[in-house]
Inverse folding.
């Protein structure tokens, strides 16, 4: 298949790439850019493991073509920490025991961050709604919700 030129802005870094137009953003993030923090599971928009931020909004990167991410600001889990310093929501996930196998964690963190960026003191319902598109088979969700609320000291 003919490749297309695309310029992606990921975690503040610009990448000029040639990609097949059918390749999804999660594939390019993981396989071309080596940003494997974003997970791929269902590959059809059902599990939320591949959640990244595009212009501040959470999206399932398995449903976005890489070429359609051109001109958008993409943030992945790798873009949250500053060197060794974790983002407050990452600290909160650790503090609240919200991680077990960790497969869902990047997506959960990105969905939670999107909420906290627009609403720094969410309610329980808002926190639940924010991760309603993200599946976790390990934690039972409550620890994840506690971690999101914990960023603003509510838990
Ligand atoms: S891998 Fe994208 S939503 Fe499941
Ligand atoms: S921690 Fe294992 S799927 Fe969520």
């Amino acid at each position: 298949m003919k490749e297309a030129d695309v310029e992606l802005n990921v975690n503040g870094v610009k990448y000029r790439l040639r990609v097949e137009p059918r390749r999804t953003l999660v594939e390019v993030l993981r396989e071309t850019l080596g940003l494997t923090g974003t997970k791929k599971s269902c590959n059809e928009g059902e599990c939320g493991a591949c959640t990244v931020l595009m212009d501040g909004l959470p999206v399932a990167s398995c449903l976005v073509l890489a070429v359609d991410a051109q001109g958008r600001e993409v943030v992945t889990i790798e873009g949250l920490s500053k060197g060794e310093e974790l983002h407050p929501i990452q600290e909160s996930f650790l503090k609240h025991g919200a991680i077990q196998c960790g497969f869902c964690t990047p997506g959960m963190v990105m969905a939670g961050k999107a909420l906290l960026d627009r609403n720094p003191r969410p309610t329980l319902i808002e926190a639940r709604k924010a991760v309603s598109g993200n599946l976790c088979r390990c934690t039972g969700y409550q620890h994840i919700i506690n971690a999101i609320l914990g960023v603003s000291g509510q838990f």
About this structure: The mean pLDDT is 97.
